[in-house]
Amino acid sequence: MPEHLILASGSQARRELLRNAGLAFDAEPARVDERAIENGLPAEMRTPQCIAEQLAIAKARDVSVRHPGTIVIGCDQTMSLGDQLFHKAPDRAQAYATLKTLCGQTHHLNSAVCLVRDGDVLWSHVGVARMSMRDFTPSFLDQYLDRNLVRILGSVGCYQLEGEGIQLFDAVDGDYFTILGLPILPLLAALRTLGINHA
C-alpha cells in the first residue's frame, strides 16, 4: 500500500502539479507566522534561499505534529532582487511599486520543498530561477494592473508567468516548476529514493 502524503499548502497550483504527476495526497495548509519565523532566524540564515527553506520546513513540521508517521511535503517561495526580499502585495499601490522596482532588472525566485516525518527533515531542496524583466512604460504597467490585479495579488512577484505576466519578461532562466513554486522533479526523485514514489 502506498505511503500516505500530505501537502502542507493551500496552493491550488501546487495541488494541481502533484495531482498531474499522479501522486495521491491530502492537503492541509500550515498554520505558521511566516514573518515571525523569518525575523527569528539568525543573521547568517537570512538569505532568500535559506528563508524559503526554513519556511518550507516550518510549514511541514506544523502539519507533521498533527499527523504522526505521515510524510509531509512543505513548500515556500521567496522573491529577491539582490539582498531585497519581497512579499505579496496587499493592494494596487504596493503591486505597482513592486513591479516598478523589478522593471528592467533580473530578480530571483527561490522555491523550497522538503519532506518531513514526525518533525524530522528527511530531505530538502531549493530551486532558483533568474527572471529578467523588460523595461516597460508606466502606462503599460497601469493597464496591466487594470486587467490582472485580482489574480496577481496572490503572487509574490505580482505576475503569473502562465498568464499575461509573461509580457513583463525578456528572459527566464530556470525550471518552470520552480517558477510556479514547487520544484517537482527533485521532489519526485526524492520520493523514489525513499521508496514512496514507485513511478
Task: From the structure above, extract its key features.
seven-stranded mixed sheet, 199 residues, 7 strands, alpha/beta
Topology-level CATH name? Maf protein
Give me the number of helical elements: 7
Domain tally:
1
Question: Low-confidence spans: pLDDT under 50, at least 5 residues?
Answer: none
Overall geometry comes to: globular
Output the radius of gyration: 17 Å
Mean pLDDT: 93
> What characterizes the major β-sheet?
7 strands, mixed
**How many strand segments?**
7
CATH architecture: Alpha-Beta Complex
Q: Element order, helices and strands?
A: EHEHHEEHEEHEHH
**Helix percentage range:** 25-40%
CATH class, named: Alpha Beta
Distance between the termini: 14 Å
Strand content: 25-35%
Supply the helix-strand structural class: alpha/beta
Walk me through what this model shows:
The protein has helices at 12-20, 34-40, 48-65, 92-102, 138-152, 176-180, 184-193; strands at residues 5-7, 26-27, 71-81, 84-86, 106-117, 120-133, 169-173. With 199 residues, it is an alpha/beta fold. It has one domain: Maf protein. Strands 1, 2, 3, 4, 5, 6 and 7 form a seven-stranded mixed sheet that branches. The two termini are 14 Å apart.
